[in-house]
Amino acid sequence: MRMLRGVPIELATDPIFAAIKAHQAAWELACEASDHDIDALMAAEANRLAELLRTTPTTIAGCAAMMRWIETYCRDEANHSHLFHDWDDPWSEPGSNLLGRLAAVITNGESTAITE
Q1: How many folded domains does the chain comprise?
Q2: Rounded to whole angstroms, what are the CA distances from 70 to 4, 34, 39, 83, 115?
Q3: How far is the C-alpha of 100 from the C-alpha of 22, rounded, in Å?
Q4: Domain annotation covers residue 112
Q5: Which domain holds residue 23?
Q6: pLDDT tens across 64-115, in order?
Q7: DSSP, res 5
């Protein structure tokens, strides 16, 4: 297997990993924003989310990583506008962790977490 900086080359070149990292960073900044900065940082986060959602993974690991990040983002208590937020229907809980369960299936349970 060909490697680039200790990462399999196909993973290193999948554009979804950079898009996930960019959105994670923007989300973290927005969550920590002061009242003065919140509008600009939330707009930047929304732009990074749009870029992430426009990016198509090129590997199975990239697909799983995207699913896991979207699930993490959607389940974050600071995110009050996500799918299944504050629902009390019987499908809310299974719906909120569906992407992670799908990611586990396609990767046979292997981690695809984004690390620094």
Answers
A1: 1
A2: 26, 25, 22, 10, 16
A3: 20
A4: no
A5: 3-106
A6: 899 999 988 888 878 776 666 556 666 666 777 778 888 888 887 666 555 5
A7: T
